[in-house]
Amino acid sequence: MEQLMHADPAGFLWQTKSCYVWHCAVEVPEEPEVGMAGVVDLGIRLPHGERLTRRFLEGTQTRAVAAFVAAKGVDMTVHHFETSFPKTTLTADETTLAEAGIRGRSMLMVVRNNS
């Protein structure tokens, strides 16, 4: 049985046996085809060192990227995204990747929030 662990404006976070899944308002969009216009090739470095790669459209909201990471087992209620250069902090909200300056080939790091 799933249990409600946390609710926030971006959606609800449910904890299952092995991962965190964003539910309700946030869905992970289908991965766009290679070579499509407006595609971001995104590398994502998780806190424990694993690296994920996935394509998203530039119009994808950062909260959908957070839902993708949450589905891999990272509790995004206590983490956020950062870029390395220039160093920028991104929140999981309705901001699109393009609005956040994430285009082409980019890397995001998942970093634990300060307590």
- How many strands? 8
Order of strands across the biggest sheet? Answer: 5-4-8-6-7
Quaternary state, please? single chain
Sum up the overall morphology in one term: globular
Query: Helix count, per DSSP?
Result: 1
Order of helices and strands: EEEEEHEEE
Question: Largest sheet at a glance?
Answer: 5 strands, mixed
| Spans where pLDDT lies below 50 across 5 or more residues | 1-24
Helix % is under 10%
Q: Write down the Rg.
A: 14 Å
Structural class: mainly beta
Put the structure in a nutshell.
The protein has one helix at residues 62-70, and strands spanning 3-8, 11-15, 20-23, 39-45, 51-57, 79-84, 87-90, 105-112.
How does this model look, in words?
With 115 residues, this protein is mostly beta strands. The strands form two sheets. A five-stranded mixed β-sheet has the order 5-4-8-6-7, covered by helices on one side.
What topology does this entry show?
Elements: E1 3-8, E2 11-15, E3 20-23, E4 39-45, E5 51-57, H1 62-70, E6 79-84, E7 87-90, E8 105-112
For this entry, give a set of tags.
115 residues, 1 helix, globular, mainly beta, 3-stranded antiparallel sheet, 5-stranded mixed sheet, disordered N terminus
